[in-house]
Amino acid sequence: MEFTGILAARSHSLWPVFIFGLIVVAAMIAGAIAERRRRSELEAFARRLGLSFTPRAWGGEGQFAGYTPFDVGRSRRSSNLIEGTHDGVRWTAFDYRYSTGSGKNRRTHHWGVVVARVGLSFPRAIIRPEGFLDSIASLAGFDDINFESEAFSRRYHVSASDRRRIYDLIDARMMEYLLSLPAAHWQLGPGVVMHARNGRFSPQEIEQRMGMIKGFLSRIPDHVRADTATGAGEA
Fold first, then answer.
1. DSSP-derived 3-state class of residue 1
2. Which one of 29, 69, 148, 218 is most buried, counting C-beta atoms within 10 A?
């Protein structure tokens, strides 16, 4: 009886472990199903726009060194690559992840990236939503390029390698356009207009970001376009 009682007690103590294991397995299965569904949606989206889709690891993210978030963390990996030309612009969109910390503090960060490769040599610039800490920093004299539009300067924190060229690019018409859009994190550089954010883009969000970037490109002042044209990028 005593032996039977011990077995019953041990069996009872193992139930939480067994249930936890079942929960973990179920979560893994659900995650795999969701990932398969998402990849199918991305592939269908790419096909509809005449773009290619590759689910496996890409490895080409190194070409974006110097842009956020490609210079931090380790175990860097990109996947679910969509690329090709649509509406006269060469597009690259992909999922990106990297890790920080170690052991119990290890954390994996997931990002979505949409890039237009254009034949225009922009100055390196970041246009991102203004935050509370940015306001404090500006009072202390830290670099933030302000514009004639108070509404635009309140909404966006702008930094650039060349102030004159960024002033030429972001004229009144461009400011009006950016203010009409949902706040987003823009990165510019030679031949690059990039949207990258924490979390992965759905196919609908990728298409929305492509539209936002197309609108940006269509509003570049003619004299800026002429000054920055490189003859590569846009088809």
1. coil
2. 69
Which amino acid is residue 135, in one-letter code?
S
Q: Are 121 and 191 in contact (CB under 8 A)?
A: yes
Diameter of the chain by CA atoms? 93
Contact 157, 143 (CB under 8 A): no
Q: In this structure, how many other beta carbons lie within 10 angstroms of the beta carbon of residue 123?
A: 17
What is the C-alpha separation between 217 and 91, in angstroms, rounded? 13
Instruction: Report the candidate in 169, 132, 185, 178 with the shortest Cα–Cα distance to residue 151.
Output: 178
pTM for the model stands at 0.81
1-36 pLDDT, tens digit per residue, is 555 555 455 556 666 665 655 565 555 554 556 678
Tokens describing residue 5: 């009682």
- Alpha-carbon distance 77 to 34, whole Å? 19
Q: What is the DSSP letter of 229?
A: B
